[in-house]
Specification:
16 helices; globular; Glycosyltransferase; two-stranded antiparallel sheet; four-stranded antiparallel sheet; alpha+beta
Length: 483
């Protein structure tokens, strides 16, 4: 039975142990949450550690527990809904005057990150907190599901829409401009669908056929006859996914459209968990081409890029100013999703490694990693090109390396080991007293408060990095074990 666009608000229960039961959550409806037997699985952890590592493991686990306590404490904020992991907006790039907004986008990322902590040996109350937060996050995301109005000619026989999500779930004191910006989009939709899939839900029941078939209709050449004249021509080279899934305007002459290579990396992650490799390469081959074009331009431009300007030198990412977001999204499409890295249609993972481990000035120090272990991007400060690092960029760069670690050759693993160890040491030493890591500018919002991010987002990514480091850390490394 297809449920398509049935909207249901479910109440979450304190103490529900979602993952421990191995069963999808029941929010009390008849058909709305059909479970899939093909549940997403987080990788297992090797709990056997050398005696010399005991101090490091204690440090990691203490830091993780403090981070969880911080995330759990945000639930007491009366301005937000239960289950939400917030995004803030600021008019300053340093997020100094950040303002809370009612946004869907942050929650699925923290939900995914928390999943990597489920197999750690942590305090029982901490594990219960993780289960409660993940359960409530699912309820929050389901609460804001709505029905798309797709009725285009490219879907024969389909006269009903499918599930979509918007960026803002409510406006509050938002400007009118934000109302125009707030239409359903494929970025929010696919990252939320991925979270629901990880929870064991049969997400295809929200669509006429399957979710992957449905969103094919938002690829460039499948969905449009005449393009918006404001779209940069470079974005029209490949048959990639349009960011906007809004079909409320029936005109085929003008559409809300743009084609962001980082958004497409998120879509690829979702598709890689839904399709086998052959079907993935057959259904969305040019998405791989578009992504590899972005990887190539990122490397070509890496010595000239100035944050927050274009890191590719071409206008193919409007929302994400940091290349480490791109490398992270692609690396998790491979590691967490199974996207191919070999064959004619695959992620050029070697070029991601080349970017992260670049030492273009041959000084023996990775270009974008500071000597204190932190990562960042180059900015112009008083006219001087300066490496500026923060907790968020450090987490994203470290996750990128951890996700592609098994693809590195022996000599590059030596370099990566030191880079990862030093980054983890930096993160452990720079955790705030409340258990969080600092908010930072992650992606673009509408004017005038154009900078978006939050301590919750940063903390989620850092916790994922610590968990993955705990899982695959080579026994031979010593940098962090001296803590």
């Amino acid at each position: 039975m297809f449920v398509f666009c049935v909207i249901s608000i479910g109440a979450s229960a304190e103490g529900t142990n979602l993952q421990a039961t191995g069963i999808g959550m029941d929010l009390g409806t008849d058909d709305d949450f059909l479970m899939s037997s093909d549940k997403f699985e987080y990788f297992e952890y090797d709990t056997d550690t050398d005696t010399d590592d005991d101090g490091l493991m204690d440090t990691l686990e203490y830091s993780i527990e403090q981070g969880i306590r911080y995330l759990f404490s945000t639930r007491t904020d009366p301005n937000r809904l239960r289950g939400e992991f917030a995004i803030f907006e600021s008019s300053n790039m340093n997020m100094s005057d950040e303002v809370y907004r009612k946004i869907n986008f942050g929650t699925p990322f923290v939900y995914h990150s928390l999943g990597f902590l489920e197999n750690l040996t942590l305090n029982r109350s901490i594990m219960d907190d993780i289960d409660i937060m993940r359960t409530d996050a699912i309820s929050f995301m389901q609460r804001h599901r709505e029905c798309d109005e797709y009725d285009g000619p490219n879907v024969p026989g389909v006269d009903t829409g499918g599930a979509v999500w918007r960026y803002y779930y409510a406006f509050g004191d938002h400007m009118l401009l934000r109302a125009f910006f707030n239409v359903p989009d494929i970025d929010d939709t696919t990252v939320i669908l991925q979270a629901l899939y990880e929870n064991g839900e049969n997400i295809d029941d929200y669509y006429p056929t399957t979710a992957t078939d449905y969103f094919i209709n938002y690829q460039l050449r499948d969905a449009f006859i005449t393009h918006n004249a404001l779209v940069p021509p470079i974005q029209l080279q490949y048959n990639n996914f349009n960011t906007w899934t809004y079909e409320g305007i029936p005109s085929r002459i003008y559409k809300s459209e743009d084609y962001d290579v980082v958004v497409n990396a998120n879509v690829l992650f979702f598709y890689s968990t839904q399709l086998n490799t052959s079907d993935l390469q057959t259904q969305i081959p040019e998405v791989f081409d578009y992504i590899n074009y972005g990887i190539a331009k990122m490397n070509e431009n890496r010595e000239k890029a100035i944050f927050p300007g274009s890191w590719t030198g071409v206008n193919i990412s409007m929302y994400y100013p940091s290349p480490f977001t791109f490398t992270f999204f692609l690396s998790r499409a491979y590691k967490d999703g199974g996207a191919p890295i070999t064959g004619n249609r695959s992620i050029n993972i070697n070029k991601i490694e080349e970017y992260i481990l670049a030492d273009d000035d041959k000084d023996g120090q990775l270009d974008r990693q500071s000597r204190d272990g932190s990562w960042g991007n180059f900015e112009l400060i008083n006219g001087t090109k300066t490496l500026v690092t923060n907790d968020l960029e450090t987490a994203l760069a470290t996750l990128s390396l951890l996700n592609i670690y098994d693809t590195l050759n022996t000599s590059d693993k030596v370099i990566a080991n030191a880079a990862i160890d030093n980054a983890i040491k930096f993160l452990l030493e720079n955790q705030n007293p409340d258990g969080s890591w600092d908010s930072a500018f992650w992606f673009q919002a509408p004017q005038p408060t154009r900078y978006s991010g939050s301590a919750e987002i940063t903390t989620g990514f850092v916790l994922e990095a610590l968990a993955k480091y705990r899982a695959i850390r080579p026994k031979t490394t010593v940098a962090v074990s001296d803590l």
